[in-house]
Design a protein that fits this description.
By secondary structure, this protein is α/β, with parallel strands linked by helices. The chain folds into two domains: 8-48 and 298-410, Aspartate Aminotransferase, domain 1, CATH 3.90.1150; 52-294, Aspartate Aminotransferase, domain 2 (3-Layer(aba) Sandwich), CATH 3.40.640.10. Helix content is 38%, strand content 15%. α1 runs parallel beside α12 (348-359), α2 crosses α9 and α4 crosses α8 (262-274). Its cofactor is pyridoxal 5'-phosphate. Residues 34-393 form the Aminotransferase class I/classII large domain. It is an enzyme of class 2 (transferase).
Amino acid sequence: MKTVQKSAKLANVCYDIRGPIMDAAKKMEEDGHKIIKLNIGNLAVFGFDAPEEIQQDMIRNLPNSAGYSDSKGIFAARKAVMHETQKQGIKGVALDDIYLGNGASELIVMATNALLDDGDELLLPSPDYPLWTAAASLSGGTPVHYLCEEANGWMPDLADIRAKITPRTKGIVVINPNNPTGALYSDELLKGIVAIAREHGLVIFADEVYDKVLYDGATHTAIGSLSEDVLTLTFNSLSKSYRSCGYRAGWLVVSGDKKPAKDYIEGLNMLSNMRLCANVPGQWAVQTALGGYQSINELVCEGGRLRKQRDLAYELITAIPGVTCVKPRAALYMFPRLDPAIYPIQDDQQFFLELLQETKVMLVQGTGFNWAAPDHFRIVFLPHEDDLRDAIGRVARFLEQYRKRQQTAVA
């Protein structure tokens, strides 16, 4: 019998946040085991409810949601996004420059499909959010990863970015605040990236989904606000700041000089029309979310639940011998390092699969975020404090046993 094989376009695609380790965890749950999941930023699972005002607006508008909307989205939602860009200082954004999508993820794939030809290159951070690398590959492009320096708080290395630009480079992805590291970029650094994009005629793809999840009084600058000439596509959604992952409500804003990009924008319009429209009920939540009380503030301020859980997770994880971590200034994650002299790991996916099987705690290995060495992992600090203490305690005991087996000394 002739076998049916997956497309060769999937050869370089991975999404280990929901990969083999999650598959193993599902099997363990089916066998009756309780798994503590520190692998994915699904806020609703951990008791972070969507604001009731948003829920009520969706409910009230359900009778108006059975038909298709305009392919770019309903007027009220796009108008709210336009007002948000004005507050952020992004100039020259009209309604036609805004696309509503089924989360930011759909729009990321749409934007890369519209830009990249076979062999074109897209600059991406390492570590990255793996959807970006997957989207570039599926679009026929070549992902090229630039280094973010852990010793410098996970800031992108501008010299490395410059060194990796070739005649085939079409754009650069900036994930700020960053997933998986929790880094927040300075205005000076962002201006440096804008200057590089201007010099080489690159499109900036700005993933700013965590722009309101900020700690310790930090502030976020939208990179689209730093130029009026560099074509910038900014992605955001309700998933994180408004704890509405399942509503699948995201948006894409096109700013900068759009005249030279007329053909590219036509491609975006074609792809937007092809998918007919985004989920209409979710679109009704956008205006209320952006215009109403920003309840994320009480979660990230001093004494807020997210702030306390970040501090606790950081304290517990860095107390483990041989584990270091840059404290995140934003987002929902941290990206600890396992000292290779103490943890000589060869295959980090297998390592964290064994950790899952022994501890019932699910984490994602660093190579799943296109980090080259098997010496990092991402931890999500969304579970309640008791669960965080339990989970990280189990991880600590697993690592202690590993050190004993390897007979590695801790300085």
